[in-house]
TrEMBL record:
Residues 1-242 form the Hen1 N-terminal domain. It is an enzyme of class 2 (transferase). Belongs to the methyltransferase superfamily. HEN1 family. InterPro entries: 3'-RNA_MeTfrase_Hen1_bac, Hen1, Hen1_N, Hen1_N_sf, SAM-dependent_MTases_sf. This is Small RNA 2'-O-methyltransferase. It comes from Paenactinomyces guangxiensis. The lineage of its organism: Bacteria, Bacillati, Bacillota, Bacilli, Bacillales. It comes from the Bacteria. Keywords: Magnesium, Metal-binding, Methyltransferase, RNA-binding, RNA-mediated gene silencing, S-adenosyl-L-methionine, Transferase. GO terms for biological process: regulatory ncRNA-mediated gene silencing; RNA methylation.
Length: 467
């Protein structure tokens, strides 16, 4: 799957600064469902084109699949159009790879961010339920000119008619961040199929990326309904929020504040990690969550802000850490309803513990590397055989990345209490084995900036119980 973005301003090479991607380099990003490559097939002062190629791994997709999604004939899991067409996978890649541009930030060319520029985007293949008409209804109100091409389903059999796949170019004078947010929202709307669970989180994404244009779009209802994949209640909430000026204004202010804070202080790795874990837990739909090795309670604090979460139990072996958590979370001063949602318990992950049974999800953030390697087997049974939560979200350092930390001496771990640190391969081998042995499927995602050679600083595995 190929998306290209072309800029024809002067000098056109500014596109590199706007996208935060150097035109001289080919860069690869690993995503949970494959790889994204960025390179520039065309670079001159008059015309500059950036290409985003998605290399989706169909086998990886099946492995990481949630239960219940296993519909269709068996081969269809492996042989389908997903690797070849623009879909919500592309939206995820846009957010990951061009996230800074999507948020409207550029250190080198801040002035250009707010300017309308002559831009063109080309999608090599996009499935479009509703054909040419639908493409026009979605893109023309946003001020784009369209060029579309639909091929025959099969050249040998013209009677079969045209295929539902289009090759599309959109052209207009727009801000780059608008172009990216239009694509981010409208690609899954055209494809009309989403690869991940649609919930509150998706609603937030739609509102965030559609904030500046969706309420004015004549097809906003269709967009919201399709984006939220026919979840009528969510779609209705989206409409209400878009329409309700008051909520929209306060929402906007909040987001602006957040964005500004973001500019001043880039998210620390620790914060990125906690947010990624929290998003994944919320995305799993869990309402009762364990935080194993909760330390001073940073993840608990994030989860307490989520209305979906009804109960959090934080466990740690260290009484001192639990005391600090108790204080930082102000558990003694909260209203009883709030305080009842959180419970802190002392215990060890190396011993079977009844109190850990019956949870929908468990987080284990930067804890496994504190366990003795020869005790890992006991821990695996405690968590995956006895506690058996529906989802386990587990993070650990990627030792390959240590070479990038300037003040870490070669061969040293990041923390004196770490008993080991794994490479990506070691972590994946461990996680795949544990998943196989205990009836879980597992998928992996990077956290933090992904380096071409050594990968991300933190690695995350998401285990989902196969019923
Ligand atoms: N998850 C927290 C803390 C990570 S530090 C965060 O992200 O901020 C690792 C934590 O694991 C420490 O608080 C330590 O006390 C705890 N820990 C280490 N061994 C443990 C064990 N066997 N059982 C439970 N917790 C343990």
């Amino acid at each position: 799957m190929l998306l290209t973005i072309t800029y024809q301003g002067w000098p056109a090479t500014d596109l590199g600064y706007l996208l935060h991607k150097n035109p001289q380099r080919v860069q690869t990003f690993s995503l949970s469902y494959g790889e994204a490559h960025v390179f520039y097939p065309e670079v001159s002062e008059e015309r500059c084109t950036a290409a985003l190629v998605l290399d989706i791994d169909p086998v990886g997709l099946v492995r990481g699949r949630k239960k219940g999604a296993n519909e269709g004939f068996t081969m269809e899991q492996y042989v389908n159009d997903r690797p070849y067409v623009a879909s919500s996978f592309l939206s995820v890649a846009i957010a990951r790879v061009f996230g800074t541009a999507l948020a409207g930030r550029s250190k080198e060319r801040p002035g250009l961010v707010e300017q309308k520029l002559p831009l063109e985007a080309h999608l090599s293949v996009i499935p479009c339920r509703g054909g040419e008409q639908m493409l026009r209804r979605l893109f023309e109100p946003l001020g784009y000119e369209l060029e579309m091409e639909a091929g025959l389903l099969d050249d040998q059999f013209p009677d079969w008619g045209i295929s539902p796949y289009y090759s599309v170019t959109i052209r207009g004078d727009v801000r780059l961040k608008d172009l990216l947010s239009h694509l981010y929202v409208l690609i899954p709307v055209l494809d009309n199929e989403k690869h991940y669970w649609v919930g509150e989180d998706e609603l937030k994404k739609l509102l965030r990326h559609g904030e500046e244009w969706l309420s004015e779009h004549p097809e906003r209802e269709l967009i919201a309904t399709r984006y939220l994949k026919y979840r009528r209640k969510l779609a209705r909430t989206a409409m209400e929020r878009l329409m309700d000026q008051e909520t929209a204004v306060t929402g906007e202010e909040e987001q602006k504040e957040e964005q500004e804070a973001g500019i001043e202080k880039p998210l620390s790795l620790n914060e990125q990690r906690l947010q990624a874990v929290s998003r994944t837990l919320i995305g799993s739909g869990a309402t009762r969550i364990l935080d194993l090795g909760c330390g001073e309670g940073k993840l608990i604090r994030l989860l307490m802000k989520e209305r979906q979460v009804k109960e959090i139990v934080g466990m740690d072996v260290s009484a001192r850490a639990l005391m600090i958590a108790q204080e930082r979370l102000h558990l003694d001063c909260l209203s009883s309803a709030q305080a009842e949602r959180v419970q802190l318990i002392q215990g060890s992950l190396l011993y079977r513990d009844e109190r850990l049974s019956g949870f929908e999800a468990a987080a284990m953030v930067e804890v496994i590397e504190h366990l003795e390697p020869n005790r890992l087997k006991s821990f695996e049974r405690v968590l995956f055989e006895f506690a058996k939560p529906g989802t386990v979200v587990l993070t650990t350092p990627n030792v390959e990345y240590n070479a990038k930390f300037e003040n870490l001496r070669a061969g040293k771990f990041r923390h004196s209490d770490h008993r080991f640190e794994w490479t990506r391969l070691q972590f994946q081998e461990w996680a795949n084995r544990v998943a196989d042995e205990h009836g879980y499927s597992v998928s992996f995602a990077p956290i933090g900036p992904v380096d071409e050679q050594v990968g991300p600083p933190t690695q995350m595995a998401v285990f989902t119980q196969i019923s």
